[in-house]
Design a protein that fits this description.
- The protein is α/β, with parallel strands linked by helices.
- The chain contains twelve helices and 19 strands.
- It is globular, with a radius of gyration of 22 Å.
- The termini are far apart.
């Protein structure tokens, strides 16, 4: 972990302090965790009451004051926070004593088709990153060992490699492989980079790692020198995990978070479920009764970020379905025992190769496409419908349509016909929004 402390001074975040704190709190008892959360929550509520207009007005309307919040169970006194509320009240959710210059800004991954913008302060980023580093250690990563990152890519759009990214890559001995450019004709290069990462890890989108395993198997590549494979961003079926482990010859772990709040759960070697880093988040199960706090059972993920004072998200429903329980042994932190993320179909290129479904939100994010809600439906190997809704008074420009069309054609085939359709969204049987639907496999 010491290299992580060096990184902290360059990033300007309180990462060093967070790493040291999380190293000590890893083995806390359940009582110690609850006491810490109570202190953090009370401090956050006091801040919201004084500096966040949305919460000041809400608490006043409910006749609540900061002293009414003594523990996490008292969160039930506040209603859920939804994406609709964030879009409507975004400016009033910002703290008046945290100017833009002290924050970074995230646009949610858009896996619901409804991206939102969230301000995150440096302290929150430090705790999120510290929890991430600790989680990677649980998944067999050793600082200084190689890390191969199978994510994103430029998509042919303007690429910006800032100094922070370069510092991160140096600190983590990181090698980058563009996820959505993986094909039969460049497979050997990908395999060589991975095989050079002796005793390191491969980390990437679940569906893209699966595609890599399938291509490797089809071309006679078997095994790697990796300590582990770490997947994220998409639901991991058991058969995917087994297939990846068999071909790459390394154990597969997953971690969970969302664009609005990172570092929510990490798998750990030798333990069941996803361990929740409760030092910086409170995770509960949402349900029809908002006035009940539940940290056991099944329902919608309801997250409270304890460290983000710039734009506090309290009892935020992020749209995923989870099951929570307490551990009988090992770490005392609460566990995610069931995780059902968004339904993510893969897209199929004209040549039969697959493009991970995470390609779509990555494209929307990278292009800056100002859609309010979107959904991509593939009806054939040469046809895609891009369904969208805009905010009132806005339109999807011809220029932006051209950018999106060109990216789809570059990655899925020059003959791909992209049709833009306003509205008309399809939902899954569970009622959850699907942002990618492949009709070829239904």
């Amino acid at each position: 972990m010491e290299d992580g402390l060096v990184l902290a001074s360059h990033m300007g975040y309180s990462l060093g302090s967070a790493v040291r704190f999380l190293r000590d709190s890893e083995h806390w008892t359940r009582s110690e965790i609850r006491q810490h959360q109570a202190r953090m929550l009370h401090s956050l509520i006091e801040h919201c009451y004084e500096h966040v207009p949305y919460y000041k007005e809400l608490m006043t309307a409910l006749s609540l004051r900061p002293e009414d919040f003594r523990g996490t169970e008292d969160l039930s006194k506040l209603p859920y926070l939804t994406r609709e509320i964030i879009r409507k009240e975004g400016a009033r959710l910002r703290a008046d004593n945290y100017p833009d210059s002290t924050c970074i800004f995230r646009r949610s991954g858009g896996t619901t088709g409804e991206p939102i913008r969230v301000a995150v302060d440096r302290r929150a980023r430090g705790f999120e990153t510290g929890a991430y580093l600790r989680g990677l250690q649980w998944m067999k990563y050793e600082m200084g060992r190689p890390m191969v990152r199978l994510f994103g890519g430029s998509l042919g759009l303007e690429s910006r490699t800032d100094i922070m990214s370069k510092i991160r890559d140096w600190a983590f001995n990181s090698r980058f492989l563009p996820a959505f450019e993986l094909r039969q004709d460049n497979l050997v290069r990908y395999v060589n980079v991975i095989r050079e990462a002796d005793q390191g890890i491969l980390i990437g989108y679940a569906s893209v790692v699966l595609n890599l395993a399938e291509l490797m198997c089809a071309n006679g590549f078997q095994g790697t020198p990796l300590k582990s494979v770490v997947c994220t961003a998409e639901y991991m079926p058991d058969e995917w995990r087994t297939r990846i482990q068999t071909v790459l010859g390394a154990p597969v772990f997953c971690y969970y978070g969302c664009g609005e709040i990172n570092s929510i759960g990490y798998e750990c070697a030798g333990e069941e479920g996803y361990i929740v880093p409760e030092e910086h988040v409170v995770l509960e199960v949402g349900g029809e009764q908002q006035s009940v706090f539940r940290d056991v059972g099944n329902g919608e993920a309801c997250v409270t970020a304890l460290c983000n004072y710039a734009m506090p998200l309290i009892r935020y429903l992020n749209g995923d379905l989870i099951g929570l329980n307490h551990a009988e042994s090992g770490h005392a932190h609460v566990r995610i025992v069931n995780l059902h993320g968004r339904v993510v179909d893969q897209l199929i290129r004209y040549d039969g190769n697959r493009v991970g479904g995470a390609f779509v939100p990555h494209l929307v994010f990278r292009s800056g496409c100002p859609v309010w809600k979107y959904q991509v439906i593939q009806t054939s190997t040469s046809n895609i419908d891009f369904h969208y809704l805009m905010r009132e008074g806005e339109s999807l420009s011809q220029e932006m349509q051209g950018i999106l069309r060109e990216a789809f054609q570059r990655h899925m085939g020059e003959r791909m016909v992209v049709r833009f359709v306003s509205g008309e969204f399809e939902a899954s049987r569970s009622g959850k929004h699907r942002f990618v639907i492949n009709c070829l496999e239904e």
